[in-house]
Amino acid sequence: MGESSGSVSIDVERISVGGEEHLIQTSYGSVSVAVFGDHEKPALVTYPDVALNYMSCFQGLFFCPEAASLLLHNFCIYHISPPGHEVSDLVQELLQLGAAPISSDVPVPSVDDLADQVAEVLDFFGLTAVMCLGVTAGAYILTLFASRYRDRVLGLVLVSPLCKAPSWSEWFYNKVMCNVVYFYGICGFIKECLLQRYFSKEVRGISQVPESDIVRACRSVSSWLLDERQSKNVWRFLLSINGRRDLTEELKKLNCRTLIFVGDSSPFHSDALYMTSKLDRRYSALVEVQACGSVVTEEQPHAMLIPMEYFLMGYGLFRPCQVSSSPRSPLSPSCISPELLSPESMGLKLKPIKTRISLQSSSC
Hints:
transmembrane helix, AB_hydrolase_fold, Rossmann fold, ten-stranded mixed beta sheet, Pollen-specific protein SF21, membrane, 364 residues, alpha/beta
């Protein structure tokens, strides 16, 4: 497939330093992939939530120095954006292609189409097996990809994942959002709905407590990204995710280890607990983050660090020693419980972990 796909790549240093953006033609339309790091390293594929891209969904995690050193030291990062969710139309302008709303003549892809599209992206770059990191809707797409292409996924790191078909209430809520987006675009109402989807009420601002810098930044980014991006593209992705099917049976067939993060204030908290209960406990772990919404990668990225370190050590991966002095992230043999280094579960015994990070300590 890689040979039949087309790609145009440009440096997008005006958007993100050091990355290269590829627009890849697949059987299901074009898709944007931002690549960071050494192509010779193992691949980490990311997929964001609805109406987000890698800059608005993963920059908190990758701007965290310890996490960035862990991930960039071990992986080449391939950030896949849902169709039409590129960082901005700036990419299109630089390529002199103009704005890129997806034509109404192009069928809305199913979730299976989007999972197969991920496979075509891997084929284009010549990637065989990859690590995956997804958030909510993106976590669903990567889980479906892992169930359809089991030999191509080494491990899953899922943030506030979905695995069931939408409940009636979620389906109706998403349907209302779809209708509003279709007729009115990304208006103030939709932005508020999305902020509630992404963040806990603590950072959104409650009674005499101002909203956090994270939410203010997201609002300013939304004014640039969501207003510039064609709203019909967001509408299409919402439709795709609202038509998802139950993956419970597929979860039993996964042969990779899985690490799940979820904020205890996430609207999808119960979905994450359900998914965890259906996975093989020998090869999976759940991390609940206190006072946090769905997008843990942005709201509490430090809470992800130590669990990810333990998880990746099972693959023989580690963080560079020059930054291991952080008290939040002691990655050295003397700091790791011996039972975590047992040979069980391919070298790493993952135990359920519940973080207890107060708002005060998370700002330290």
